[in-house]
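note to self — DONT lose this again. spent like an hour looking for the file last time. sequence + predicted structure for the chain T wanted, 329 res
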Amino acid sequence: MMHELRPLSDSSRVVPEPDAVPGAASSEAAPLECQFKTLAAKYLPNGTLLAANAPLGLVRVDQTHGECRQTVLTDSVTATGERIFWAGGLDVAPDGTVYFSDSSDLNIDPAHDPRDRFFDEVVPDGRYVGLMEGKPRGKILKFSPDTGITEALLRDVHHPLGVALAPDASFLLFAEHYKLRIQKLHLTGPLAGQLETFAHLPGPPHGLSRSPSSNTFWVAIPTVNPSIYLALARWPSVRRWLAMLPARYRELGPERGTAVVRLDAEGRVVGSLQARPGKANPVSEVLEWGGAVFLGSPVGENVRVVAVPPLEEIVEKGGVEAGGEKEDL
């Protein structure tokens, strides 16, 4: 087992360089050396870097003289004009179509400039209020770079965050944070448009990604024990009141562990990485790349790199039948 910490400046998301993305034209995109804040980022097949930026929307990131310039590609649903306030996870289909989430329709606190204060945890924000409130305010969106059209595939989703496409883009998985589950939306075939529950989880999921080495998916679970907004699920008015408190008062109770879960194509757990309370920062993003798993966190400025056995070894050791191979972070 390998444990390595590498510095990554002020980001909870990990993005591979263009030459690590199948089909990406690495010659058209220089290695990214500038810094920017995002909730998700992904390269298009031509090497263009896209990012989900709250409250800007879906943006293209260009590097100029060591600085990142963000160009807004879409900030609203084309047909209805609905604003995209909390662009979250995103994934890109082989044809360049972008699928991404909008966690909430609540605007960011208008008393502060969101571009400067978005990551200031002392200021209550619309996304956290919506999360504590527990109402289905999110959307799953589809954006076409060719036409510039943004379409809402699903509405009334419970705080969607990470998204991941099937290898052939036949379905889309997305994390419903508050519901502690992964949902599956069929995109093609006779079941196109139908929604089903893909997996139930031991904690609220955040980041979601597909393994490049096997037909499996990685899910980041920042906390495996119920936090206060889950414990108070039956009292939404109390949760909403708590959401207006400064950040240091929001999360009460004992320390909680964090975990990463690996799911097969049927939603079964085939592996997991876990950390006991206080032993690791909460994991918000997971990415398999180059034979290792990169774990991002909104806390601190490091990325944890963990070597995990290939899925074939897990199956040979009976991991699937036993409920998955378990390793400690």
